[in-house]
Amino acid sequence: xxxxxxxxxEARTLADVFEVVKAVVLKSTRKSRGGLMLGMADLGxxxxxxxxxxxxxxxxxxxxxxxxxxxxxxxxxELYKPYAFHVLLHEYIHSLGYLDENKVKSFAYQMTRDALGxxxxxxxxxANAEGFIKHLVYxxxxxxxxxxxxxxxxxxxxxxxxxxx
Length: 165
Prior knowledge:
By secondary structure, the protein is α+β, with helices and mostly antiparallel strands. Helices cover 46% and strands 9% of the residues.
């Protein structure tokens, strides 16, 4: 039996966190997908809401908002991996063809609870991300990004096969 809690604690990079995400989903659904890329972008900030990331149907790129990750580092660094796990899990589920947002939220919560336990921060985020909003957004500073460019994270999906020689 895989100890997902320990694997997540030992993760050093977003790619490491993603490996845990894929293992959790595979155990839960027996489904997987390779060839995904991770893009980091400034998706803006709003004090009462946040956009953690997105996946565009038909693409192979998960995009994460850099702002909540930066805010977490400043306010509550212990949330970094649980939050990254949550966003990557949610978007990975979308990449497997699940498009209904409410179902994806429910799947993400169930998988996280089953893999990491009810008391884990990632499970708490999956249950109620809004409860963590003060650690995810900059207060009193709403902005839209000047540059919506996406920076790709190298060596993100280790199950990917490179066809470029």
